[in-house]
Amino acid sequence: MTESAQARLVVENACLRYGALDVLAGLNLTVGSTEIVSIVGPSGCGKTTLLRCVGGLNQLNGGTIHIDGQRVEKPLPSVSMVFQHFGLFPWKSLWSNIAYGLKLRHRPKDEIASRVAEAIELVGLKGFEQSYPHQLSGGMQQRAGLARALVMEPKLLLMDEPFSAIDAQTREQLQFEMLRIWDRRPTAMMFVTHAIDEAVLMGDRVVVLAGRPAHVRAVREVNLPRPRDRSVVSSPEFIKLREQVWHDLFDQPGGTQARVQ
Amino acid sequence: MPDTTRSFGARVARFRTVNAWWIQIACYGASMALLVAVWEALGNSFGVLFVPFSTTVVRLWELLHSGPLLPALLVSGKLYLVTLTINIVVGVGLGLALARVSLIAAAFERYIFILYATPTIALVPFISVLFGFEFGPRVLVAVLISIFPILLGTMEGARSIPRQHLDVAAIFGSTERQLWRDVIVPYVTPYAMSGIKQSIALSMAGTLVAEFFLNPDGVAAVLLQGTTIVDSGWVLAVTLFIAIIAVLLVGIGELIERYLVKWRKASVG
Q: Shortest CB distance from B171 goes to which of A81, A89, A92?
């Protein structure tokens, strides 16, 4: 469904090995310019490693990654990332954490002020600008992590299991808020998760990885309408897709069930 | 509220409990009163070899007022300040270098632990043969005694920077300089500060040892003078004086630490 001319991210034949350990073996993936691609796979299958390679944090041994035609060899300014454990600097106030990327790029003070204020508004953290991370709940910290990434207005947003370290109720809340934010500012997103529901709910496509070495076992198109809200979760299509992805993950080609975790 | 005082969680939480400031001060005051009372009682039964607290305070007043203590303090204070400054500058600098530049660590790290394990007193004869008895070699002895908490604390801190902090810096395009400013320095500060706090006290010990063993001078010489004439009031007065200064200096160090790492103070309630 994604025209290659429109593809924001193109991963071609990605190979990565640590010593004798093959992590990625010839993996291919594209993400369109306003597409959300969910990546699911068992723990340790290499999905986070793939994300880190796209972010320029790890280097491939073979194959290429291009973002808007530019080869990824180090972190690119058009890419932002949201981390599993938030990755806020505990010595910076919430405001300074969110302003971090803009300050690194020496943006003018008033531009930083207005963009940070907008991002804080967007993720619902108004009034907490001067708080330090340890004073906030996990959910609020990840809102800040999200704001820090969004304020850069990235062309590609990398989500590394962003809601997995958050309690279940807050997680559901954040998933729908993430969808709402995306509806307002559609952007390309690579969403790594180990939760099947989340993968189907967020994604335009769900890519099921199996490892090791990591390879694409299945790709599922998610044709659920957008904007998506709570009603989607109980729709027959959603339930059917969730089942399909479940079987993609757990049914071994030989018929036995894969061990997960 | 449910009664959880006997639960494991409650017992763990007690480690983190911060009592009101006036309770802490009251405990401090009570322990001090007890110490003074025991000292007074012991002094009254031992006589001249261990004079009571009250006699010691009177003696201290005499030594300060018309005796040699204040001029000696100036001499020792200079050695102390130079030692502490060198400890901080060299300790933090070398600690960061050892942690961030693996070749420097490969070349020098073992020697640091050898020096740490060697009693500096054992080196004093060689230091005096090589460098003499003056100010320079005294600083060297004092530094060798008191630099390690800062050096090792800083090294430990700089080595334990979580990968995630470095990832965040990389993703947002930090330069090396910005990485030091935004991540390394703030992350290492509490570790360095904890070492500096220890070194504030240890530098006093280092100063006195250096003065004792390299041609007695300063406060250590005053202390030795009291020992020579077997005046226990004199010796105890000087010791009390050193203790008071140590408590004051460590207190200042704690205030500075609290100011620098206020972000770390977890909200406990």
A: A81
CATH number of the domain at A7-78+154-250, out of 3.90.226.10, 3.40.50.300, 1.10.1740.10, 3.40.1190.20?
3.40.50.300
pLDDT in tens, B199-249: 999 999 999 999 988 888 899 999 999 888 888 899 999 999 999 999 999
Same domain, B40 and B103: no
Is B91 within the bounds of a domain?
yes
Q: Are residues B130 and B46 in the same domain?
A: no
Q: A189 pairs with which residues across the strands? A: A36, A157
Task: Please check whether residue A191 is in contact with residue A39, taking contact to mean a CB–CB distance below 8 angstroms.
Answer: yes
The 10s digit of each residue's pLDDT in A164-195 is 999 999 999 999 999 999 999 899 999 999 99
Residues from chain B that touch A56, judged by Cβ atoms under 8 A, are 170-171
* Best CA proximity match to B182, nearest among A29, A60, A100, A206: A100
Min Cα separation A248/chain B (Å): 31
Residue B83 lies in a domain: yes
Cis peptide bond prior to A77, omega within 30° of 0:
no
* CA neighbor of B192 nearest in space, from B101, B96, B80: B96
Choice between A139 and A45, residue whose per-residue pLDDT is larger = A139
For residue range A96-123, what is the model confidence (pLDDT) as tens digits?
999 999 999 999 999 999 999 999 999 9
- Among residues B226, B251, B247, the alpha carbon closest in space to that of B63 is found at B226
State CA B48 to chain mean position distance.
32
- Is the Cβ pair B182, A55 closer than 8 Å? no
Confirm or reject contact between A31 and chain B (CB < 8 A).
no
What is residue A164's three-state secondary structure? coil
From chain B, the residues in CB contact with A101 under 8 A are 172-173
- Pick from B168, B261, B266: CB nearest A83: B168
Check whether B184 has a pLDDT greater than 60: yes
**ipTM here:** 0.90
Same domain assignment for residues B31 and B88: no
Q: Tell which residue, A109, A123, A190, has the closest CA to residue A151.
A: A123
Quote the percentage of chain B above a pLDDT of 90.
61
Is there a contact between A89 and B182 if contact means CB atoms under 8 Å apart?
yes
Q: Do A91 and B168 touch (CB under 8 A)?
A: no
pLDDT tens digit sequence for A64-86: 999 999 999 999 999 999 999 99
